[in-house]
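User: Sequence for DUF2000 domain-containing protein below. Tokens please.
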Amino acid sequence: MQFDTKIALVIRIDLEAWQKLNVAAFLTSGIAAAFPECIGDAYEDGSGTPYHPLIGQPILVYGTDGPGLSRALERALARNVKPAIYTEAMFKTTHDAANREAVKAVARADLPLVGLAVRADRKVVDKILDGLKFHA
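Assistant: Structure tokens for DUF2000 domain-containing protein:
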């Protein structure tokens, strides 16, 4: 099935495995919160046990370094695409308000990004992520 939109995560490649998974989970929640229409129907197994719904389209995961993340952020903003972001400082916080404070304390050009997520028209996302490779 071909979707009109594309969801992509970009995660810094030098992180520990647990950090990559944490960043991916938080960024995906940002997309789900911003685009509730991307959530599919609830699941149910053959025994009738119900499960929560998931995002109903593929999520592509790319990897890059810090400058690659900064470039993707600037490309997204230049195309009026609001991303979800995750910064290094957020690994040291323990709650949502502290996360927002950590981001607010740093100018955009100096954000130590470790991940970002976007959802937009397929062609727009392709331009934002041009040159990036899938995460290994």
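The longest strand covers residues 113-121.
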